[in-house]
Write a structure and sequence with these properties.
- The chain has helices at 2-39, 86-99, 104-107, 112-119, 128-149, 151-158; strands at residues 52-57, 63-71, 74-82.
- Strands 1-2-3 form a three-stranded antiparallel sheet, with helices on one face.
- The chain is α+β, with helices and mostly antiparallel strands.
- It has a domain at 52-158: Alpha-Beta Complex (Sufe protein. Chain: A).
- β1 and β2 (63-71) form a beta hairpin.
Amino acid sequence: MKRATAAMNDFDNFVDQLQEQIFDEAREAYGEKGFHRWRNPRFNGAMDGPDGYARLTGECGDTIEIFLKFENNRVQAASYTTDGCASSAICGSFAAELAIGRDPDALTDINGDAVLAEIGRLPESDVHCAGLAAATLQEALSNYMIRMKSPDNQKSKDQ
């Protein structure tokens, strides 16, 4: 019994050390702000009935979806989903956060550099994820603008 307990303690210590090593490497790669968002995701999940929506797949194979809900021509809520890596999730989260409270004109200023600046840093090999998140956000904005100009939407506004 003592041998089994000692083996379990050794294994638990190994797992704790391994987790701490992973966290240290993630902090180094993403910075404190990106690391915190990786550990505590925000704005993650599909949104029912969004006013703007887009789904893009990057050259790396990661897909990001962005959902926008507008009220008084400003983003009242935003969310994202991704099937990609941690960098895609972090970038999607920050892109959604950057969108909230902005009107369409201000949304057009959100590009990959703005997303990356908000995070602080990403591994060089993952910087493209910021561009993918921003491009998906711009496509969701475009979807919203097209829907606002559609004849069906104009009829409902006139009534």
